[in-house]
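Hey team,

Sharing the Restriction endonuclease subunit S run so nobody has to redo it. Sequence (454 residues) first:
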Amino acid sequence: MDTKALRQKILDLAIHGKLVPQDPNDESASVLLERIKAEKERLIKEGKIKKSKKSAKTSDTPHYEQVLFEVPEGWESVPVSELFCLNPKSEISDDTGVGFIPMTCVDDGFSGNHSFEERIWKEVKKGYCHFQNGDIGVAKISPCFENLKSTIFQNLPNNYGAGTTELVILRPINVCAKFYLYLFKSKWYIDEGTKYFKGVVGQQRVHKGIFTDLQIPLPPLAEQQRIITEIERWFSLIDIIENDKDNLQATIKQAKSKILDLAIHGKLIPQDPNDEPAIDLLKRINPDFTPCDNGHYKQLPQGWTVCRLEQITDYEQPTAYIVKSTTYDNSYSIPVLTAGKSFIIGYTNETTGIYSNIPCIIFDDFTTDSKLVDFPFKVKSSAMKILKVHKAIEIDYVAMFMSITRLIGDTHKRYWISEYSRLEIPIPPKAEQKRIIETVCEIFTQIDKIMEGL
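Structure output:
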């Protein structure tokens, strides 16, 4: 189940007036709008906010200034600037403790959470945006905007804060901030914003008009509250679904590890007494081979033996295959790899220094993560080894062993030469290695089908 899409569907219904029924007894949004205008005029007169500057008119009305969809009876469609004070400034004592919020302190996604660092006002009052509890902050730079980095500031020290200028600050006037936070996280709003990106790729920002002139819905105040309650009810149910899914995914990950553990201990499939013993296989690789002292793997099946990884693998430094430019594009053909969770970090159009002696295993020298690779590639950095497994041993079997065998140390050191290559690996007969690989693949395929159906 795509829970992100489900959340977006809830928000889409909400901002179109279809999530909760309208109540004809609610004070209409037109009356609310008059109160908002009166409050803005009062704040302007008192010098607390500045009068918004009107955009210069052209012969064509920009798309975002048009009414973009019909709203229910009793609602209004108004420019963003009618409901908010944009990027307000704070005037407080220099020695006041405040909350400082860089972009990293604003959560992405739907939670709307943020953290802050404590600072003194004189340290942050210049060069940063200003805000206070109850203000909304929305990221204006890509990809933070698309990743829904937006929040309502709360629990700030002494009510005030400052932060990255890549946040647009919107101070609500007589409207429910949370309703509009949800609107700013809606796919509709994000899509409208991305239509008007400005700047070069990697440094694109949302056009200011999306925060001033874009026509957005204004429901009656009472209905805003009912919509918030209904959104949160649905989101709580989705949280339960996601938690159950996360728990199931963790259980499945544990089950896969257990299956691999059974496989490398000879307990997943029955042995065939007609198989050639593994020790004969290893003696063909090295006539002087002597089995390891089977201390770590007691009670292995008949015909199995134990050796060190370095006895069946060779490694190569990746220096010759490091990508020169990190300007990646999905239209390019050569993947750039890391042995960590991300694996393929991008694609390059470089035509030299491509590793093609496949299949191989890439090994992160610091984290001991590993991946089996069966296609040509380049690498991101030198923090890995490229491993070749002796052709007499099934590389898939070695990759299975390595996938559940990690070393985690306290020091930042390279592990392959110092420790990992010396680890002992149980070796079954060649024919049994193939049967193990086939059985594991069949089981994992069934598990993956179950996960895809969730």
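The CA atoms of residues 179 and 229 lie 10 Å apart.

Ping me if you want the raw files.
A.
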